Amino acid sequence: MIEIPKDAILCLDKGFVRLVDSMGGDDAIVQAARVSYGKGTAKVSQDRGLIRYLMRHRHTTPFEMVEFKFHCKMPIFVARQWVRHRTANINEYSLRYSEARDEFYTPDPEHIEFQSALNKQGRMGEVPEELKQKVQDYFKEISERSFAMYAELNEAGVARELARAILPVNLYTEWYWKNDLHNLLHFVGLRSDSHAQYEIRVFSDAMAESIKKVAPFAWEAYQDYVVSGLRFSQIEKGMLEKRLPGRVIDDICEDLAYQITATLHHNKPRKEEDLFPLYQKQGGSDIESDFRLKWDSGEIETGNVREMREFKIKLKRLKK
Amino acid sequence: MIEIPKDAILCLDKGFVRLVDSMGGDDAIVQAARVSYGKGTAKVSQDRGLIRYLMRHRHTTPFEMVEFKFHCKMPIFVARQWVRHRTANINEYSLRYSEARDEFYTPDPEHIEFQSALNKQGRMGEVPEELKQKVQDYFKEISERSFAMYAELNEAGVARELARAILPVNLYTEWYWKNDLHNLLHFVGLRSDSHAQYEIRVFSDAMAESIKKVAPFAWEAYQDYVVSGLRFSQIEKGMLEKRLPGRVIDDICEDLAYQITATLHHNKPRKEEDLFPLYQKQGGSDIESDFRLKWDSGEIETGNVREMREFKIKLKRLKK
Amino acid sequence: MIEIPKDAILCLDKGFVRLVDSMGGDDAIVQAARVSYGKGTAKVSQDRGLIRYLMRHRHTTPFEMVEFKFHCKMPIFVARQWVRHRTANINEYSLRYSEARDEFYTPDPEHIEFQSALNKQGRMGEVPEELKQKVQDYFKEISERSFAMYAELNEAGVARELARAILPVNLYTEWYWKNDLHNLLHFVGLRSDSHAQYEIRVFSDAMAESIKKVAPFAWEAYQDYVVSGLRFSQIEKGMLEKRLPGRVIDDICEDLAYQITATLHHNKPRKEEDLFPLYQKQGGSDIESDFRLKWDSGEIETGNVREMREFKIKLKRLKK
Amino acid sequence: MIEIPKDAILCLDKGFVRLVDSMGGDDAIVQAARVSYGKGTAKVSQDRGLIRYLMRHRHTTPFEMVEFKFHCKMPIFVARQWVRHRTANINEYSLRYSEARDEFYTPDPEHIEFQSALNKQGRMGEVPEELKQKVQDYFKEISERSFAMYAELNEAGVARELARAILPVNLYTEWYWKNDLHNLLHFVGLRSDSHAQYEIRVFSDAMAESIKKVAPFAWEAYQDYVVSGLRFSQIEKGMLEKRLPGRVIDDICEDLAYQITATLHHNKPRKEEDLFPLYQKQGGSDIESDFRLKWDSGEIETGNVREMREFKIKLKRLKK
After folding, report:
1. pLDDT at position A238
2. Taking CB atoms and an 8 Å limit, are A35 and D67 in contact across chains?
3. With contact defined as beta carbons under 8 Å apart, do B305 and B263 qualify?
4. Contacts of D295 in chain C (CB under 8 A)
5. Please, which pLDDT band fits residue B85 given cuts at 50, 70 and 90?
6. How many CB atoms lie within 10 A of CB D45?
7. Out of B117, B225, B235, closest to residue A269 by CB
């Protein structure tokens, strides 16, 4: 059995995720968005605003500028779901080339659940102790029996690439897996979702820990705008019943400051130099260079000033 | 000058889009989703429902099973935006290998507009006749002057790959461009959007015509759920003020039929064979095999039966 | 058990490959290479020459213009190798969503071999009858035992996504798999190679049958220039001992006709209109439009005319 | 005009390439190939041998584990060739969003050449002074005239996205460009080739400098086995006339040590523990763990021991 590296996050009974290396972070996202010489902005808080803006408007290419490389060990049935994310680079342990190790996944009692009656891809409700025991017994029996057969055939000299075909998909495998932040966030978005299978979710959650450390603003923005995004399926919940985190409300108010400025300017054109002060008067909090960047971006919509002001008031109320 | 093919859709003053070939259509999407032997379903209307369901729940891989190949001719500055869609296969006319042709884009008067004051990526308001004339004159002057220089250098024997560097980006180029439906829809979603530059939008709109013919249900579903999707930026508009097309309301009611059935079943488990009749009683209109498929999919949420029924009533009212 | 479709090619004991659809063929390759309106050339023999030329000089993009879609059924351990070809689009049967079927791979006696002593990824020499019997018994035992457990857990209501984890990798799965010709040839080049595992080779060979039908010239050229390509590992075999197929010798002679023409022209420049006749005098057999295309391509090298003529003579001798 | 960063490599008259960041190097390649915990090997010389082995046998995935990010500035016609390498991530300066800068490429006199008579994609022979002057004058005239028009239209308020269409493709643009080592080597292999256009070659050569620093063994192996690889087009040169670098001969001799060992073992099977000493007797210089790795790899061929020994002698002679 291989030794688990010290800085790895343990996953399931014998697996792990370890961040081996990374390139760039929040700063690299901002740098690419500005296609500048890496001067950055005066304050970190400005970087955060720009990253949230990029995420909100689905400008994805700057997030591709950050790269992560993980060393992971997981059961084959988990690897089979994982490998479908095709932008990643992978180097996997080969059972043609190397001997299988006697390492199989057996589920914890608490994760042995009934088939969901509503959802054939899901679980629902813990099963009785007796059935739990049977599941664990079966996992152990098939693991031990298949490995004994494998070992015997191996010993007898049968081709390894053939003998391995009797091993079950709860056998552990391992790999190096490298991906960029945009696609990694997409992976985590799908695989840390409550609809994902528990056994891949723990690996996805472990990788999420690395994202939080390497690119905390990008992570936060992803949570706010994609994971908790207002999706169609939640149409019936209604806007006002939705519990929005305070920072999202701040962002909407920021957007409104731009939209109100744009609408006022549209109704009665102002001089170029009067725009930033006008924006500040609407409660806008960006510095002037970022104001320019967003103002020029082509995504500011105009509307009815009164309606937008009322909406702002409602939002402020939601926050308290 | 090359002859425009008969079945091409003309774009701008000298460009075109022509569907050269395609593989599969709505039927191929359904076939892949069912991973079956192409038996299909009894009625076309069932295919439509399944496609809409796949689109609504972002199950994208079946849409990758349909392929399109276009022959296109467009100005270089348009090709430069277009080529960023990296999943496509491209064979382009080469100016190292072949001589440039005397074909340049000059904008129509109606599309010569002012820089948008709100949006540096946009246009706003037609310009005076005099300025329009100047723009057209400049386009023609630079096209003619650069081509005369190019022709002269070419004649004098200067390397073609070098001489072409003085040609402007309104020069026309052409290519074969092949992509799958999922990525083509993504292209059209971005490039037929009102924020896209007019000169690429006409090409995107032309390709959209082919999608409508080859995969009409997929096209319709894409419009309803992605293009007109309820996005965060429209948060302030509110659900009830939104003008939903009747077919979207029907889809939501369908979803509600599933959710109500699931909730009832959750509250008081039913026998397997009683589920489909229960669903029909809630107004569900799928055939039994599709009911099974969706029921098993893992995306049906439960809620409060009374609230869902009220929501359904509100929706029906919106429709009339 | 699902019925095997009639037009499928059977692979292993229960698997198959079936070409569901394709787009384009040799003509589409030539069309893209010419970026023309599909006029094609006068004779099919000219298309063949151009395709061989493109393959020889590694001009890969025209081959991406042809698309294939297969329906395949294979053991999981085969699918695991297959899925690493990342350019393909895949829709696979899901064991979270659907119940596993009782279909497992058991090797034929003739394919049960010893582990290669030289090659841990290979097999070598048939094993004694007794050991063969044991291997088959073990495959059957583990298949039956694991499926019985799976069925029992399933019956008891355990979540399907969990119960499936005790199934071995010789379980059959199935999918729709779509790829372009360039990447499909690369797949077949690797997986029909003698170093590939027997169990994936039969699927690769089956897909090769479809390529031969859909794009016969491309297939032939791939065999001649890539599969039988003169690779470094064969350095020691020497050029003259190599058994070259007659058509490859013809191609080299064609190349030499171009190179001799180019060298003569380099030594003493000719008029543009004299080049094609000069090329024909050297034994060149292309029509004039294809001569132009290749002449302009930038890959014709010059050399010593005498040496090239001598080499041509040696080649002709090799052919007889 | 933007300031050129200090650590950039200047390219053409106003362009540059700058390595912004990288992840991993030769060690990361070896680490992925071993799928180990980064223990590495005892000696750096062993890493080199393994990397050369991977390159020789086209095991490409470990090279994908190294990542590079560059900041580059180049003319549009160069960017147009560059962007076709689709695996890269790109963030480019936008002429819809930002104003064009007055920066255009004018070729140096020494790079103004005639169209190659042999190769329409190439140049051949310097042109007379007078013609050189004309080329430079034309580049300057079109740059100045088009920029003056652009500036005037811009000043008059014409939409920037439209006005830019009169700018020629010798205008400079800039971007962040990120790619993995495998694909970067492929880029450099094509774009630093003598058939590539001079103007992109200088950028490719500049990036090659970074590869040399970050992954020197991989760079060297790529040169030896891919760039200087024995390709079909050089068939006529003959093996013995080829000037092989000494280190390639050493590698072939290494391969022969394995092949002779394998053949001897095949003719008369040895005990497992006698294989490594036998290999050392044939002149093999790998350490035992690497011997195991390669021995198990499945690529060792057997042959005729006498022939191989003779070939080895011939090779040694070539080296001196």
Report:
1. 37
2. no
3. yes
4. 118, 120
5. very high
6. 12
7. B117
Choosing from D48, D52, D164, D191, the catalytic residue is D191
Optimal mutation site among C169, C173, C190, C199, interface A, most CBs of chain A within 10 A:
C169
Give me the number of domains chain A comprises.
3
CB atoms within 10 A of CB C271: 8
Q: What is the pLDDT of residues D90-146, one digit of tens each?
A: 999 988 888 899 999 999 999 999 887 656 567 777 789 999 999 999 999 999 999
For chain C, the distance separating the N- and C-terminal CA atoms, rounded to the nearest angstrom, is: 55
Residue type at A36 in one-letter notation: S
Per DSSP, B61 falls in state G
In contact, B46 and B290? CB cutoff 8 Å: yes
Confidence grade of residue D290 (pLDDT, cut at 50, 70, 90): confident
Asked, for residue B98, whether it belongs to a domain, the answer is: no
Any chains having at least 3 CB pairs less than 8 A from chain D are: A, B, C
Distances (CA, A) of A112 to A133, A139, A167, B266, C153: 10, 12, 22, 20, 11
Let me know the angle formed at the C-alpha of A64 by A211 and B81, rounded to the nearest 5 degrees. 155
Residue D273 banded pLDDT, cuts 50, 70, 90: confident
Contact by Cβ (8 Å): C33, C22: no
User: What are the residue numbers of the active site of C?
Assistant: 191
Task: Count CA atoms closer than 13 A to D72's CA, side-chain side.
Answer: 27
Same domain, D300 and D262: yes
Note whether residue D196 is domain-resident: yes
Pairing of strands D89-92, B123-126: unpaired
**Residue type for C121, please?**
Q
D292 within domain boundaries? yes
Q: Is D191 a catalytic site residue?
A: yes
Task: Report chain A's mean pLDDT, rounded to a whole number.
Answer: 84
Per-residue pLDDT tens digits for B213-231: 999 999 988 887 677 543 3
* DSSP classification of residue D84: T
D201: CATH: 3.30.1360.170
Please pick, among A48, A56, A191, A201, the residue that the annotation labels catalytic. Answer: A191
- How crowded is residue D149: how many other Cβ atoms within 10 Å of its Cβ? 20
The tens digit of pLDDT for each residue in B135-188 reads 999 999 999 999 999 999 999 999 999 999 999 999 999 999 999 999 999 999
Q: Sign of torsion, CA A55 A57 A58 A62?
A: negative
Q: With an 8 Å Cβ cutoff, are C266 and D120 in contact?
A: no
pTM of the model: 0.80
CB C23, CB B67: distance < 8 Å:
yes
Containing domain of residue B248, as a range?
Answer: 237-319
Retrieve residue B67's tokens.
């392929």
Tell whether B139 and B274 lie within a shared domain: no
- What is the complex's ipTM, to 2 decimals? 0.77
Q: Are residues B31 and B119 in the same domain?
A: no
Q: Is the pLDDT of residue C49 over 90?
A: no
Chain A nearest-CA residue for D24: A21
Return the number of CB contacts < 8 Å for A and B: 93
Cα–Cα nearest to B100, from A131, D13, D120, D156: D120
* Residue among B18, B207, D86 at smallest CA distance from C36: B18
Residues of D in contact with B94 (CB under 8 A): 121
CA distance to partner chain A, nearest, from residue B258 (Å): 10
D246 pLDDT tier (thresholds 50, 70, 90) = low
Query: Do A284 and A208 share a structural domain?
Result: no
Query: What number of H helices and E strands is found in chain D?
Result: 12, 7
Give the number of beta-carbon pairs within 8 Å between C and D.
Answer: 86
Contact across the interface for B138 and D197, Cβ inside 8 Å: no
**CB contact (8 A) between residue D24 and residue A62:** no
The Cα of C171 is separated from the nearest Cα of chain A by a number of Å equal to 9
If asked whether residues C159 and C178 sit together in one domain, one would say no
**Per-residue tokens: D266:** 């095949």
| Gap from B1 CA to chain D (nearest CA, Å) | 20
